[in-house]
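User: Predict the full complex structure for these chains.
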Amino acid sequence: MTQALERSDYHRKQKRFAHENVTSPIKKGIGLASFMHGSGFTGSGEKILASVVGVEATSGGLVRILAASTEIGQGTNTIFSQIAADTLHLDYDSIEVAQPDTSQVPNSGPTVASRTCMIVGKLVESACISLKQTLISAGLLKENYSPTEFRKACSDYHQKFGPLKLFSKYQQPPQIGWDDVKYQGDAYGAYAWAVYIAEVSVDTRTCEVQVKDFVALQEVGKVIHPILAAGQIEGGVAQGIGYALYENVVWKDGRMANGQMTNYIMPTAADVPLIRVFFEEVPYAYGPAGAKGIGELPMDGPAPAILSAVENALGITGLNQIPLLPENLMLRHRSSR
Amino acid sequence: MSGHTVRIELTVNGQQREAQVHPMTRLLDVLRENLRLTGTKEGCGEGECGACSIFINGELVNSCLVPAIQVQGAVIQTIEGVSSSKKYGSKLHGVQEAFLGWGGAQCGICTPGMIMAAVHLIENTLDPTTITENQIRTALAGNLCRCTGYTKIFEAVQKACHLPGSKA
Amino acid sequence: MRAYLPSYEMIVPQSLSDALALLKTEPGVWQPFAGGTDLMVLFESGKLSHRKFINIWGLSELQGIQENETHIEFGALTTYAQFEKNALLCQEFPILHQSSLETGAIAIQNRGTFGGNIANASPAADSSPGLLVYDAEIELISSEGSRLVKYCDFHLGYKKTILLPHELIRSIRLKRHQNTHHYFRKVGTRKAQAISKVCFAGLALQNPGQTPECKIALGSVGPIPSRCKKTEKLLSQSFPKIAKEKRDWIHAACSELTQEISPITDLRSTQDYRLQVSLNLLTDFLDTLKPSA
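Assistant: Here is the predicted structure of the three-chain assembly.
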């Protein structure tokens, strides 16, 4: 909270805006939202899914990760490779992620629920640990080894025992539990925590709201890849801005009447400010290297922060519907003057 | 009814190309289907998203809105023509380098169009190092992205303005 | 892409006279097609009612920008980008410069033409309010000759214009002027790639020794983009001499404007919002003017 307030210059801006707003037709405001989002499936979800990840090593020492998670540009393949390379003390380039073809990979569950890094990534980590242990137990590898020694160990293993392939299956962390009958217990194993602060300007002549600055601060356990993690937050915040201010769905006779890019209004580059992302890390023992999930988190914060900022700008309260279209704000603004 | 086709001759990425198509075939389809240059993407088919952006005679244009007959004899540049060599990994344009280095792409569907728009900005500015954030914003306003929230794209373009590989 | 290509035809005339000859012999059959930024969108969504097109993009007789002492004239095929690159046009007609910059985005501005914007006759056309307040004249050409019409008289009703089936728009003429205050505001759903909810242009002449004169035009608040002549008359007749009179003057102008425009509720916005914004923008414009004494 302290960091977020500092980074956004919250108090000083609030004071300055209050002063400037008196004479300006463009009112500025700053607003805050604090929230959390669970990682992984809710309740017994992960236990029921019982996800599995496999890892295999070729006789040449190339490591292949076998997981059902889909790479769509969010960085799944990158972080899995990082986790495997880190766990096995190998170069990033000696790790390969297999195409998630169901004839080749086990069921690691769907690519949803902010679970890919924390749940599936953890299984990648544990599968790699098993791989390492298998080679060590077979007497082919010491505790501390070099990449060359690893490759030799794989080659030796293939000669002696055949293919080297291990699987790791999801285990619910011992301290969490969910009662499916009473619907009570731990909804999630872990939560990412965030404070988002939005600065807006409201043109009272048209009630158009513009987001001028956005600070997104979250505690995520461990940042596996800084650029990819920030990319997730920035993308989610932009979507959240759309959700808050632009993306109205018009219904007509049960059908969406504005289903074209020209009339379903997504924010353009001209509508979104630079989104400033900051991370805190409090490692979660059951995530790979301590990481928790962040995929859905950034969608939660922008709308409340923005509405709060608009209330601050106009000196009103009670805004609770999104998207906050200028048409709706105009009615509200007029009636409050 | 007319199923008649015409022969369109045009220069694409420095090469003489031709296609036999209905005169109102979208340039986007000529590029993707006839010339097999699938780098240019269709995001909306309405001129809103910019994923189909290319250059016609040096100008940034949405290829989904251009009928083939209007580019008879024109000079076209697509994303495939942006790097100075066709070999993968060699001699990328500064914008492409910057996108790779600074996380400018996630799913990649907007990326070819974004890069065209950024290249258009940089190559039409005498001194790219003077380009401001607002100018970048205006230049990319016609290219929609859902994954990145634009921030890393802005950063990549800002970096690209200073890279030697961005000079025309 | 929802259109079935073989149902359509597009021909390329070799010259303007060839084009006009065809339009004369087969009026109403061939739809002129310029930059395509309106027609292609309809085409791709399967909503284009025309089947035959005559490509006029590239006809040199419809291009070019010329100025003399009294007027600047630019061809119907002048794109928004070409307008933006012309220093003189931007300097003397800043409303049209601004409206061009706010049309779509760069890729659209490179292909959209003023002639197309006018002929398409959408009440939301971005260039219309500016053309109206600058008292633009449009040259219409056919195989029989040409006629110069006032843009204010061009629109007859929703998507109905005085353009005859065998005519093309050849050029737009703007009179060079002494106006001192140029005001333009397009209110859209977002900052780029947006069709306007309200489009307001205000022009005023406030020079010492000259009678103050105001012109107002609005788009998207009626079936056609229009000059608000009744409001203009009121503004001129009771132009405030001292500051005290200004508030009442603006108030009266707002009442008059309320009667003069007819905004509706549609997919993009509401009647109430459009009305309120029109009044707010009028007020904002009038606030920039000083009492005449």
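Chain C touches chain B at residues 1, 5-12, 33, 35-37, 40-41, 43-45, 53, 55, 57-58, 81, 104-108, 110-111, 191-193 (CB under 8 Å).
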